[in-house]
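pinned: reference chain
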Amino acid sequence: MDPQRRLFLRGRPAVKQAPPVPRPPWALAEAEFLTSCTRCDACIQACPEGILFKGDGGFPEVRFSRSGCTTCGRCVEVCQAHALLRNADQPPWDWRADIGPACLALKKVECRVCGEICDTAAIRFTPTLGSVSCPTLDATRCNGCGTCLAPCPTQAITLKMPTQ
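pinned: its structure tokens
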């Protein structure tokens, strides 16, 4: 079902462009995913990190409130409908981390938790003489795993599509 129609049926006004729903890693394009996914919950049950949940319409969604994705691929392995297809040349998602103004380091409070937990070293802290080190994000290294979201004490990190 069209997400705009679902919003209308729930009494919410349709928006021009709804933000993309975070799907499991290596999900097909949204329209293909919605057509292919059987909503069997196999990917949700197979996820060792517990980040996949039944979302709107029963389709699996990713929530990084507790942890990030290790890109183990178990969700892809159990997907009988082939709505998830792992491609070694393709990152699991198109989105990238974005550090917002609520970041403690940007407010001159020492915090490096996101940089310490980032396995790909996409978030680094540049030393600054006489001040707190500030984070810099290397979008080419970020794989969108969401590991940096949950431990951020101010929820200053979000995931955005490159065009947002």
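why pinned: The chain has five helices and six strands. Helices lie at 3-9, 30-36, 42-46, 74-78, 113-117.
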